[in-house]
Amino acid sequence: MNINKFILEKSYKLISLVSNNIYVFIAGLVILIPFITFQVILVSLILVGFLFQNLYMKRNSSTVYVYVTLDSLLILINILLIIFIKNILNMNNLEFCLLFPLSYTLYRIKHKIKNRKANYLDNPKITFTLMLSTLILAWLSGGVVDYLTGYVSSSDLFQQFGFFTPNSPVNVIMDFLSLFATITATPWFMIVMGIWLGILGFFKVLETNTIENRIRLLLMMFAYAFYSIWLPSFSPISNNVPYIPYMWFNGLGTYGPVEPSYLLDGILGTFIVTAILSFLFGSRQICSVTCTAPFMLQGTFMDSLKKYNRSSKIGRKTLTSKIGKWYRYVMILTWSSLITFALISYLDYEKVINITILGNDPTMFYASLYFNVIWYLQFILIPFVGNYSCVNSGICAWGSFNQFFGYLGFFKLKVKDPSACLKCKTVDCANACPVGITDMRASFIKKGEFKSLKCIGIGDCVEACPYNNIIFYDVRQWLKNKIKI
């Protein structure tokens, strides 16, 4: 028996067992949480991963499983909210009562959904509720673990709760965003997200047949753990990360201001190295491997949400490989603001001027606003905007930079036999694309290859092709052809 199929069968039995008895497992966690809070939180995220994998397994008839998942998430949210409010924020009994309105709101959302058709792939409101609930759960889990490990103190969090005594609507919004970003910016939040999404990524690897796709997925999971979490946060060289080329994996503002001491080697070095790599191998080296986004978007359940690229109103507007005017405008606005902020940051450190945004360095403010706030808004809005909206919207400067050099370079998709595409009736390649490129088949038939700024080399089209007809082409294949000559 194929080892992958064997592991899948055994894993699916375990997941079904856990999902069918989830309330028993949660009851056990409730009993244990006063004694081993840290361990219980991590185990609860494993259970969440199992629940979402179970939804994916039963995605064609997921009605009852959606209810069970929402119930379980609601219970876990309440448990963690109690811990967060009482132990971390040291709130008095009056403020503690805020728990109950939130609990009731979540209950009403779940109750309304229960009276409707409940397949998550057919109802964006259900999927949004699942995504929002899990993000709340992950945020609370990250906050509690940050506190337990001493990464964030209760005073650090509590001082940002100024929106309980609001001075103005703007202050309320900024205090909330600051509190949200304080936790999402921590490595422990990424670890918490990585647990439940890592389970989905693991099953994606098992379901993948193409060797290159499987290697890419494994590299992606390794990069998330080693490159995005351990190396910059827990390694012995974490303090030197700003000086290392390629470590500014999300571009300007990722690890600090545009400080002259590491401008040339750390910042500009990163842009030069990634531009070369994208030119040689395509933007997939960032957008499908080392960025944290692909890890969070490519697991089994998350990958199934690409259906919303074709069924949501906004998602449908991003279909095909064409770049719309609105995309160009967003990208120009994103880059112009980032370059302006970078210039201000540099001049600040040269003591030519002294300008901050809400007390923060401009580029660090930009990076935190996008990667710690806006990105997660995109994440939970997938049912309404489609999957991989960071690629399709032009709002990610780092992605568009590497996509541009990838488009100039060697990377493309090629087909062995264009006539097979002509005869193909299912067009599985277009349906499989997570970024909604639906016109690759026409290019295959006409040119025998496909190249697009939006193509980030995820390879689901290669995996889905019923004729095993699509192949990756980059500098490696180019060199092979030159050597043969």
UniProtKB/TrEMBL annotation:
Q: Which Gene3D superfamilies match?
A: 3.30.70.20
Write down the Pfam families for this protein, in alphabetical order.
Fer4_10
Signal peptide residues on this chain, from the entry's feature table: none
Q: Which UniProt keywords apply?
A: 4Fe-4S, Electron transport, Iron, Iron-sulfur, Membrane, Metal-binding, Transmembrane, Transmembrane helix, Transport
One GO term of the cellular component aspect?
plasma membrane
Residue ranges spanning the membrane: these are 22-52, 64-85, 128-148, 176-203, 215-233, 262-281, 326-347, 367-385
Molecular function in Gene Ontology:
4 iron, 4 sulfur cluster binding; metal ion binding
The 4Fe-4S ferredoxin-type domain is annotated at 411-443, 446-475
Superkingdom field: Archaea
**What is the protein named?**
4Fe-4S ferredoxin
Origin species: Saccharolobus caldissimus
